């Protein structure tokens, strides 16, 4: 039995929701291993849409779901999401969901700091969702974070809050903001403690037991590999590692527990927020892709930037995440185009290169080199076998495989789960 990691191979928003839902039905345990409630995905089950931003997709199917230690958790947002699902008939209980005891908490002061920086004119704008994710990770690595287990001992909490505020109030003073009282933070945490603590567990022990019992584990990431704090388009990235290797560190299981890495890959490219985007099309092609692909963020509703498929970037992600196979999504969005371009390399200062340089300045100077393929007029929407696809669509998919150095394991042709062409089941690798 294989354990599978799902990662986005671009800048996120690749259509992970549908694929993760399909895999979660086969899995016994679903683990979220990084990020916060700043990214989400939509599951469509029997015509009903469920928008998740923090909880693992397994909660919708009643599977054991785990929020790993690599996540930063806003306890109030967590409670609100549980309540939203309850209103849709999905009951989340401590029997179906466990949260790592050592998970870092997002507080209101993190959200305020995020917004202060993002709204300033000091050159710090990177396009965050202002949900406090980055500042919470800063406190984690600064060793001053409040963690879930701290809510179980309210008597010891004031000293930890004082240590946290020593940093934050000095920062706030420098930004011209009022100081925050320790009592306000204490009340914020104490008010939610009883609602979150029943879900607390030693997740690494739980997962080790599930693994030894032969259970199938699905590791579910948020965002995409190009937003990774180390391997992404820094500084226009998220504040955590989003590559597949984080599944081990962010859950407490060793890397030997990972058997298959599935990279979710959109048949074109999109990006939300600031940062380099070599193949972006700020023209009628970009408008076509955005309109046909309904390219708006699950969590924020922000319009996504759109462009041609960038094989250079995905090939790089195949390396940095050790991708075994990809799930190619939204092929149907390309229906009707006369021609389709694919970026196969870049030109940088007169030289052809086959990778995205790490330097921000070099990324901005990189010019895409395209190859042009004929499009197709027939519809691919809803196709469930290769025989249903136009010949040119098949050629496009095969060329993508060749360029990125990884096979297409699944091909998605609509948001509906059944509209999928399966070549390789990751759980049966």
UniProtKB/TrEMBL annotation:
Its cofactor is Mg(2+). It comes from the Bacteria. It catalyses: IMP + L-aspartate + GTP = N(6)-(1,2-dicarboxyethyl)-AMP + GDP + phosphate + 2 H(+). IMP binds at residues 13-16, 38-41, 129, 143, 223, 238, 302. GTP binds at residues 12-18, 40-42, 304, 330-332, 412-414. Belongs to the adenylosuccinate synthetase family. Binds 1 Mg(2+) ion per subunit. Substrate binds at residues 298-304. It is an enzyme of class 6 (ligase). One of its GO terms (cellular component) is cytoplasm. Pathway: Purine metabolism; AMP biosynthesis via de novo pathway; AMP from IMP: step 1/2. Its EC number is 6.3.4.4. InterPro entries: Adenylosuccin_syn_GTP-bd, Adenylosuccin_syn_Lys_AS, Adenylosuccinate_synth_dom1, Adenylosuccinate_synth_dom2, Adenylosuccinate_synth_dom3, Adenylosuccinate_synthetase, P-loop_NTPase. This is Adenylosuccinate synthetase. Keywords: Cytoplasm, GTP-binding, Ligase, Magnesium, Metal-binding, Nucleotide-binding, Purine biosynthesis. Mg(2+) binds at residues 13, 40. GO terms for molecular function: adenylosuccinate synthase activity; GTP binding; magnesium ion binding. GO terms for biological process: 'de novo' AMP biosynthetic process; IMP metabolic process. HAMAP family: Adenylosucc_synth. Plays an important role in the de novo pathway of purine nucleotide biosynthesis. Catalyzes the first committed step in the biosynthesis of AMP from IMP. PANTHER family: ADENYLOSUCCINATE SYNTHETASE. It is found in: Cytoplasm.
